[in-house]
Design brief:
Elements lengths: L9 E2 L24 E8 L2 E9 L10 H5 L2 E3 L2 E5 L5 E4 L1 H14 L7 H14 L11 E10 L12 E10 L7 E5 L17 H5 L2 H9 L4 E5 L7 E4 L2 E7 L2 E4 L10 H12 L3 E4 L4 H10 L2 E8 L3 E10 L2 E4 L7 H14 L10 E4 L1
Parallel strand pairs: 1-3, 9-10, 9-16, 13-14
Antiparallel strand pairs: 2-3, 2-8, 4-7, 5-6, 5-7, 6-18, 7-8, 10-11, 11-12, 12-13, 12-15, 15-16, 16-17
The chain binds pyridoxal-5'-phosphate.
């Protein structure tokens, strides 16, 4: 029987608060971390020793198994502040479900909802001054689980630690992105781990992404591993296209992460009675639509970037320029709607916002 009650969480407050280092108008993604962090340990088959402590370095054995065989998974989510200075998490239960899907696939300990939510809400509540309220800003939250056995044999660890750290975030991209369709390297294969947030998925993506960046692109568009024809994801975003007024996105499967922003965008599009198709979409179809003038919009969706409009698609030595970002109807409307829901300016009819404190 796994213990689900880890409260009361032991809290050790920092006596060196760094909030004054935060310049609300000039936030670089992922660089500055809030004053506290949360962790809990999985040992003897249960979660215990939940603590909030000052943010700081970890002390660990060089034989810690996560460092060697990649039993390491994470989540990415955000907290927002509304005009009344209330703090809300966006769809936290979905991140909880997803971290457990990742844990199962990586043969790691899953985490009970009570442990995940207790750590998350208490930590964000304690560091609520770190949630920025300037336009387009939020507190990025990084829950992660790592294998902690001091053992370098290859087998699933018996012990794990669940951490949460948080970091104020402004805009991820400052301009519409240029993407390159990748036809050599692959991110995910059928039967693999592309559908989970395993650290190794990101490590393997960096070299091809670096090559694309050297050629002036922001990101890669990954294609299917068999034929390199069907579009899958881009960086840490799901992909969407509007062709002839139809919103098209690749279907979920074992090579694509089930993005929470993706689901939110599809839900809003359906609310607005837009025609939505979750189906395979090839680069040939996109190039063809571009030629015919029916490619109206293309963008990535993800927690960090929210909606990143695509300005240009590179494929086989040619660059396809998309319509100006400001004039696009769907991506601008959905980006605004998501901000308005998150900051309480429009009703939250889908109950996506979860109040902290
Ligand atoms: C590979 C990948 N695809 C898509 C996404 C978008 O998912 P979400 O909207 O839940 O952030 C992410 C980010 O978490 C990602 O890492």
């Amino acid at each position: 029987m796994v213990t689900t009650d880890i409260t009361p969480i032991k809290v050790q407050k920092s006596n060196n608060l760094r909030i004054k280092e935060l310049d609300y108008n000039n936030i670089t993604f992922g660089k500055l971390f809030s004053d506290h962090m949360f962790y809990a340990d999985f040992k003897n088959n249960e979660w215990s020793d939940a603590q909030i402590v000052p943010y700081g370095p970890l002390l660990m054995s060089p034989a810690t198994s996560a460092l060697h065989y990649g039993q390491a998974i994470f989540e990415g989510m955000k907290a927002y502040k509304n005009e009344k200075a209330e703090v809300f998490l966006f769809r936290p239960f979905d991140n909880h479900k997803r971290i457990n899907i990742s844990a199962e696939r990586m043969a790691m300990a899953t985490i009970p909802q009570e442990v995940f939510m207790a750590g998350l809400t208490q930590l964000v509540d304690l560091d609520r001054d770190w949630v920025p309220d300037t336009d387009g800003s939020s507190l990025y939250i990084r829950p992660f689980i790592v294998a902690t056995d001091e053992f370098i044999g290859v087998r699933p660890s018996d012990n794990y630690r669940f951490y949460i750290i948080t970091s104020p975030a402004g805009k991820y991209y400052n301009e519409p992105v240029k993407v390159l369709v990748e036809t050599n390297y692959i991110r995910a294969v059928e039967g693999g781990v592309g559908y989970v947030k395993a650290s190794g998925n990101y490590g393997r993506s960096l070299f091809p992404a670096k090559l694309a960046q050297q050629r002036g692109y922001h990101q890669i568009v990954w294609t299917d591993a068999r034929n390199h024809r069907y579009l899958e994801e881009s960086g840490t975003m799901n992909l969407m296209f509007v062709i002839d007024d139809v919103l098209i996105t690749p279907p979920l499967g074992d090579t694509i992460l089930a993005g929470i922003t993706r689901d939110s965008v599809l839900t809003l599009a359906r609310d607005w009675k837009m025609k939505v198709q979750e189906r395979k979409i090839s680069i040939d179809e996109v190039v063809d639509a571009h030629k015919k003038g029916t490619l109206e919009d293309a963008f990535g969706t993800g927690t960090a970037a929210t909606i990143a409009q695509i300005a240009q698609i590179g494929f086989e030595g040619k660059d396809y320029i998309l319509p100006p970002a400001e004039g696009r109807i769907f991506s601008n409307r959905v980006a605004k709607e998501l901000i308005d829901i998150r900051t309480g300016k429009v009703p939250d009819i889908h109950n996506w916002m979860y109040k902290v404190g």
